[in-house]
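Ticket opened by: R.M.
Priority: normal
Category: complex prediction / small molecule

The reporter submitted a protein together with C2E and asked that the result be attached to this ticket for the collaborator who will pick it up next week. Submitted input follows.
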Amino acid sequence: MAISAEKQLEILLRLGKAISKDKDIDRLLPTIGELTRDILGADRCSIFIHDRLHNELWTKVAHGMEEVIRIPDNKGIAGFAFLSNEIQIVVDAYNDFRFNQEVDKKTNYQTKTILAVPLMGNSGEVLGVFQALNKNDGIFTNVDAELLELIANYVSAGFENALLVRELQSSRRKLIEKLSTAAEFKDEETSMHTKRVGHYSAIMGTHYGLDPDEVEKLRLTAPMHDAGKIGIEDMILKKPGKLTDEEFTRMKEHPMIGYELLFDPDDDLLIMAASIAKEHHEKWNGKGYPHGLKGEEISLYARITAIADVFDALTSERPYKRAWSVDEALDLLKKERGEHFDPVLVDIFLDRIDEVLEIYEQLKD
Ligand code: C2E
Ligand code: SIN
Ligand code: SIN
Ligand code: SIN
Ligand code: FE
Ligand code: FE
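Result attached by the on-call engineer:
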């Protein structure tokens, strides 16, 4: 019995909706797994993605705890389907010598029947394996195999892009972290400083009501606010005492240096990072630098980062100052509420001081 064209269409529509709604592969894997499980009438369904670097297949399990499982790419039925690039149907897993019991042990599960279909990329490369376990009534049939193959072909096209995006995101994240610390090395601040500023900013962003994606972007970009200090002479940057007017004038160039260093019109993260770098020393009352912007002329992200940055600078030791106590720092924030800082954001920071202090303790220098 072949699958009717109508049924095929319905399946593709459901999958298409899931894929277009979410480009994040970590969320997409479990979603597609669950949809496919229902379509096949299986108990579990997972997509294994090949990791070329480690010769492994990994998957994200949605059932129960959110966990990543990794298996060698030459072991088990999944590995066999991957290496042979052929569909595998197993009717009695524990009596199949190829079956790898490790995964069952890890997930506390008893596999009986398996259907494993290779996931083909656009260029003919095998990207991974689509696997269904324990058909609810009986065993997996050729019709099930045909269905899963259809789904696999359909999702793999969209997938290759998502995989690429994932790789780019992780290398971008690393690059960004490196950039944030580059300025610190010069400044003799610790990498904890930039991390804390990211987390403090995320706390304010969250309770201001930003959506989680925006919060993550803020957590990633706020740490780069001082990237422009790379361009400032060590003589000034590491001076143990107070800066002369001339030295401070030079110092005030670090926001624009940072902006020019980071700005990239094709990259939304870098656009955000650049605007934070440029505006993190602007003040709510218009008396900041470099442009003397006032109130909401200053981007929300920069207004948030300014509070996180000053709180962290005050509570940290610098070549030119001792570390202040938390109470002393909070007194300054209150004093500067509506002057240096956005009053609404100061209130949020004070309201959430418990969360702030958790980060303060966790990420101590
Ligand atoms: P930073 O050390 O990261 O400080 C960031 C911001 O925290 C400062 O921005 C300021 O708003 C606040 N802040 C830090 N320490 C104090 C303090 O002791 N009292 C008060 N009221 N606020 C403080 P600002 O002033 O625009 O300075 C920007 C950067 O210029 C500083 O970054 C630091 O690298 C440098 N800097 C500022 N003043 C001095 C200084 O007297 N000596 C040296 N060597 N560097 C300085
Ligand atoms: C295997 O492919 O042999 C492991 C199957 C499983 O996920 O339990
Ligand atoms: C948040 O909810 O995003 C703040 C907590 C943190 O920064 O780790
Ligand atoms: C500048 O003003 O120097 C850079 C551009 C801007 O402020 O938006
Ligand atoms: Fe700064
Ligand atoms: Fe800073």
